[in-house]
Design goal:
Pfam families: CH
Mean pLDDT: 80
Low-confidence stretches: 1-15, 455-472
Number of helices: 27
Coiled coil: 157-184
Shape: elongated
GO biological process, one term: mitotic actomyosin contractile ring assembly actin filament organization
Helix content: 55-70%
Strand content: under 5%
Keywords: Coiled coil
CATH architecture of the domain at 19-186: Orthogonal Bundle
Distance between the termini: 118 Å
Number of strands: 0
Radius of gyration: 48 Å
Structural class: mainly alpha
Domain Calponin-homology (CH): 33-148
Length: 646
Amino acid sequence: PDPCPAVTAAHLHRLTAEQMDEQRIQNVAYQYLCRLEEAKRWMEACLGEELPAPTELEEALRNGVILAKLGHRFAPSTVPQKKIYDPEQLRYQAVGLQFRHTDNINHWRNAMTALGLPAIFHPETTDVYDKKNMPRAVYCIHALSLYLYRLGLAPQIHDLYGKVKFTEEEINNMKLELDKYGIQMPAFNKIGGILANELSVDEAAVHAAVVAINEAVDQGDVGVTAVALRNPAALLTDLQEALMSVYQEILQRARRRKAERAAVAEDKDMYEEYLTQREIQDHISAVNVRAAVEQVDEALDVANELALLSALQLPCLALRGLRTDNGPWYLDQLTADRQQKAQNQGSVDPLEHEELQEGVTAANQEAQMVAALQSVNAALRGNDPRRTVSCLMTSDLQLPEVFPFAATFYHRELQLLQRQTAQGELQEEELFVAVEMLSAVVLINQGLEAGHLQQFSSSLVSSSAGYFETLAGVKQQVGRDLLTWNQLQEGIAAVNGSAQDEQQQLLAVGLINKAVMSGDPQRLISALLLPSCGVDEVSPANACKYLTLLSQARQIKAQVTVSRDPGAELWLADIQEAVRMANQQSQRALKCESQIHLPAQVTTPVQFLSMWVRNDQRLDRHRLCLMIFVIIATHLRRFVSDGGRL
């Protein structure tokens, strides 16, 4: 026969066993983290101070300060405040653990002895100080909490298993920590049974009541189970008559599972098979929560605000921050959350307890925001800028930073904006954008008043020297009043327009330089006549003269530069000067021409010489040359004006 199927089955069985073992170890680490969180919350309730997270709680307990404070809380005569070493933990923070910190742990142990907690629960000093067995110390805190609760001296510790979440990293770190010390996890679920054996007749009565509940659950009779659950000695709370049959079903199922797990144990404690008082209470609480969640879901189905409020107020849900006047907000928020959950999962499931708490918190925030927004609108309809700023600064609106010294400015500008809205009310988005803009304007004004260019630049988030000079001038004109957004915008637009003009002018100057390099008079005239160029009194008739003078100026500039750069370019001032000189030369030439009266038929130098020879006129050489130059210039001008046609 082929052995492959058997090998494969064995292999799969081995992998499954490994996975199950890994899951068990992970579950132990998670359970212990839950016990740490439970101990943390209970001690916080007793001491009235915040303690480190459960992942850091073990380390925080090592100096014994928290434990000694716990001892002082319940046995002040045994642990006076002055006996606690390093109560503010300043020494511990500076140099770490000191041997004297062990005194704090011993004070705690003495307090537990004075209170009467059986010594079987007490950890050793080194279990805490040297971290030799920290789970035992946490186990002791749980036992102390149950003991003090039954004496009516302390609040009840709550079971958080399955109700708190930890990251995979936190669970793995705790697993490694437990493996490192090789510590056997104490049986937290047996604390009640051990106390019953160790304590008075009253505790024995609780034990007997719990045993009776387990036996009634085994019988499967709802009536009998209900009687056992109602026994005051069982110390059970929040029992609901309508849910007795559900209690029976859930408890019976849990009882069978526990008995099955304990079947393989040889030396068994009775509470390895029986449900403890705490386990019974936890199952009852879970049933109550589930029923309450379904009641909330039914109220959401029919959109009944009163029914929803009634369900949300059930003690088993213990929802924080619940306000009866926020009923409409809860209905809207939880309905939307329920619809979103249905879309995500593809089925309509009730909102879980955590989701209900998140919805209540979100609805409260929305209601507070709307109320705060109404206060702002009401303040804007009044005449008190300080009240307006006070309303703007409430954390419920979560607006950008508001500067109280500019209260009048905020009030005036927002009042104008409010009047412009169709409904006469500013909405959340409008107010947020407006305040963000106005606060930026306030900072800009502050920079202008102080003359701080750096603060001003950071306010505009741009290169702002030009803005600063322009707006500073506007600020001087308006005096002590803050510049409005419109005034700032006009000033910035003016500076931006000026900068754009300068950019266009630079481009035109570049075109002129290229035209000079090309030696093309028409191209040069086209560049000089660009509106963005800014060169005055350009005459197309002087194109050649412009080209000549600009070429000479460019050559001279190339020679005088340090690097003798042949590509040195002319600036606007150089170009304007060359145009001016060319225009002056043309004007002088025209003046000379007007002083020499020639017959209309004399238009060329040859005609002039012929006339001169015929008339035997005797002209000096200087006058002759000047006349010839005028005629040549006139002829050249006509040539250019005719487009170069002979």
